[in-house]
Amino acid sequence: MESEIRNIGPLVSIIVTTYNRELQLLEAINSIIEQTYQNIEILVVDNFSDYDIQGLIQSFNDPRIVLVQNENGGNYVVNRNLGILKSTGEYIAFCDDDDYWLPHKLSEQMRFFTQSPYNATLGLVYSRCYMLGPAGIYRVGPRAPLYNGHVFFKMLIIPSVPILTALVKKTVFDDIGMFNEDPVVRCQEDNEFWIRL
């Protein structure tokens, strides 16, 4: 019965990039497996961390979690793209090792995808997020407004998609390509991707 409940709705692949942040990774994975939307696979793409990450993954005893180890040469975008290439879901989400999700994140976003009359042309659903620091929540991001509809020109001025909130149809990557791995756009590769999308 539990496996039947888990497989309701399209499969969502969650890409978790990580390197040497064991405790944060543990919290990130826990926030993913506690989602109310359960038809997921979790691809943990690790830059060969120096602790027993295989043991950490095995401790979850969850076949939905897959460890992929890859040397990224200091360019984490390489591992994000590798996760996308290895994914099997119809939708892709991102939760880096220092990010955490609220329990209804995927359910709410999948509701938009599955119930929207614009589903055929809808490529991305995203939201605001809480920014956490040592003392707790210090602001809500992004500072820019959340855009809807035809947003190309607005995104050129102020991109507003926090990657940890993004849920993307996998076909989008087939249509417009992956995240740009060029070091020139490092730390802005997600904004460059949202503009192309």
Descriptive report:
This protein has helices spanning 2-6, 22-33, 53-59, 76-86, 105-115, 152-157, 170-176, 189-196, and strands spanning 12-18, 40-46, 65-69, 91-94, 124-125, 129-133, 136-141, 167-169. The chain is of the alpha/beta class. The strands form two sheets. A six-stranded mixed sheet has the order 3-2-1-4-8-5, sandwiched between helices. Strands 6-7 form a two-stranded antiparallel ribbon.
Write the layout of secondary structure elements.
Elements: H1 2-6, E1 12-18, H2 22-33, E2 40-46, H3 53-59, E3 65-69, H4 76-86, E4 91-94, H5 105-115, E5 124-125, E6 129-133, E7 136-141, H6 152-157, E8 167-169, H7 170-176, H8 189-196
Parallel strand pairs: 1-2, 1-4, 2-3
Antiparallel strand pairs: 4-8, 5-8, 6-7
Features:
197 residues; alpha/beta; 34% helix
User: Helicity, in percent?
Assistant: 25-40%
* N-to-C SSE string, H for helix and E for strand: HEHEHEHEHEEEHEHH
Strand content of the residues, in percent?
A: 15-25%
Structural class: alpha/beta
Sheet with most strands: strand arrangement: 3-2-1-4-8-5
Approximate shape: globular
